[in-house]
Amino acid sequence: MAEGIGIILLKFGFILLFALGLGGLLTWVERKQSAIMQDRIGANRASIFGLRLIGLFHPLADAIKMFTKESFTPASAEKFLFTLAPAISVFFALIGFAVIPFGDKLIFGDTVVNLQVAPLNVGLLYLFAVAGLAVYGVVLGAWASRNNYAMLGGMRAAAQMISYEVALGVTIFGSIMIYQTVDLQQIVHLQGGTFWGWLPAWGIFMQPLGFILFLTVGIAETKRVPFDAPEGESEIIGYFIEYSGMGFGMYFLTDFVETVMISAITVTLFFGGWQVPYLLADGFHFPWGEVWLLNNWTVALFQIASFSLKVMFFLWLQMAIRWTLPRFRYDQILRLGWKYILPISLLNIVLTGIVIMVLK
Amino acid sequence: MLQNFAHILVFLIFGAAFVGINITISRLLQARNPHPVKLSTYECGELPEGESWIQFNIRFYVIALIFLIFEVEIAFLFPWAVVFKSLGTFAFVEMMVFVFILIIGLAYVWGKGDLEWEKPANVPDTSVSPLTESKELTQLMAS
Q1: Contact indicator for A189, A201 with CB cutoff of 8 Å
Q2: Residue A87 CA neighbour count, 13 Å, CB half
């Protein structure tokens, strides 16, 4: 049964709310988590009618500020590209979510709704295409600003992103070889079930090395601390130095949306996506033989909740890493990418291949 | 199958619309007080020094070249990885040879020193320093 355009729009709305909502929430988490880790109180001043709610209104206040602040273009800048660059940046960050499955199937009368905006059989390839395009927003913005610092930041960002782009491609080959597909929904399906009857068959148990490499490369791709040499608040400020108002807001949002994206891909490839341990299409089947039957809607809700919780866990982990490690030197960043991660992930392909061949 | 790409198209259109609407709203809401000083290039309060559209360092170019080669080679691995289990041992060995060639390429670039970020710009040749040269000279003169 084909899905109508209305259902696609609903799914689009959901995934947009998911990405932007989490992205917005992350601006608050960033401040609050750093405050807790550094024994401060943190952002708590924004209030509506005296209601402060531990600073949860700060993202809202930020949004209002971004919309109303003057966004001026430097006189010497390339005007058209300067305006276009942040839009491109946030656009490429958002469209990757089209292939992320956030649930299995929702039966809606006689319509079966696939809980994935675009059930693409080349989902993973699409994701890498989109991730490869992300560098354009940064480089165009840096070049169009016509500012020395912006240019420095842009060059650094470009070299860093393309270096880790190679490693990003190589790290996931282990998973592709195991699942024999690049369709993300199918990859999640194959992670259902259990090993030895009790251990969830998630990707991490088959690709532990691949998972660690992928997460490292993913964090490097988002250009956040400890890989934030292109930004470097305390030295060159980076490729968005000339941006103000909405332009800056979009670059800022891109960073957070990319963080959500990396968490979502990690969860999809290595942590079973929307799979809940022991939850099959008709309810829970526990290893000790107990069975709880659930209807389709409850199962779908469990799956969406499971996906969201796992993504949130990785957001928390990335934030914790961001506030724990200091910034790497630029040569250290490139050395890590080319001399450690790339050879180890090539080795991972060989090892995975040998193990699969031997088991066969 | 093509229908799935139509979903992507719808997603792209609405993504672009979302970005466009955001820019438009902020255009309508924002304050506008241009001032020549405000519009000048930012350089920590100093007058901007030099042109920023410069010839960038050749190292960035080399990194981009290496990236291009590896990315294309990796693209060859995708079709193999997807059908790898059904192809059997021969395809596996074949691809291991390919990966091995890839590793040789990496080793070559590594050995050439193109992955080193800090390169000494001009290393003075310490084997013949003026001092030793003059010493040799004086010894020659003395003999």
Answers
A1: no
A2: 17
SS3 of residue A107 by DSSP: strand
**Per-residue confidence (pLDDT) for residue A196, from 0 to 100:** 83
Q: Where are the domains of chain B?
A: 10-117
Distance, in angstroms, between B126 CA and closest chain A CA?
Answer: 26
Give the model confidence (pLDDT) of B32-91 as tens digits.
888 888 888 888 777 777 787 888 888 888 888 999 988 888 888 888 888 888 888 888
A75:B40 CB<8 A: yes
- Neighboring chain A residues of B102 at a CB cutoff of 8 Å: 346
Mean per-residue pLDDT pooled into runs of 10, chain A (360 residues): 72 87 90 91 83 86 89 88 92 90 82 82 89 89 89 90 90 90 91 85 90 94 86 81 89 91 94 88 83 86 92 93 90 91 92 89
Asked whether the beta carbons of A164 and A337 are under 8 A apart, the reply is yes
- A41 vs chain B: nearest CA distance in angstroms? 31
Structural domain count, chain A = 1
CB atoms B117 and A349 under 8 Å: no
What per-residue confidence (pLDDT) applies to A228?
87
Range of the domain at A127: 5-359
CA A291 distance to own-chain centroid: 35
List the single best residue of B25, B27, B33, B41 to mutate versus A (max A Cβ within 10 A): B41
Task: Return d(Cα A143, Cα A240) in angstroms, integer.
Answer: 10
Report CB contact under 8 Å: A169, B74: yes
Residue A199, SS3? strand
**What kind of fold does domain B10-117 have according to CATH?**
Methane Monooxygenase Hydroxylase; Chain G, domain 1 (1.20.58)
Instruction: Name the pTM for this structure.
Output: 0.89
Q: Is the Cβ of B83 closer than 8 Å to some Cβ of chain A?
A: yes
Q: What are the chain A neighbours of B81 within 8 Å (beta carbons)?
A: 173, 176-177
Would you tell me which residues 257-296 of chain A have a C-beta closer than 8 angstroms to some C-beta of chain B? none
Q: What is the pLDDT of residue B91?
A: 87
The Cα A87–Cα A298 span in angstroms is: 38
Count of Cβ atoms closer than 10 Å to residue A348 Cβ: 23
> B122 CA to chain A: closest CA distance, Å?
19
Answer yes or no: do B60 and A159 touch at CB < 8 A: yes
| Sequence letter at residue B106 | L
DSSP structural state of residue B55: P
CA distance A17 to A253: 13
Residues in chain A: 360
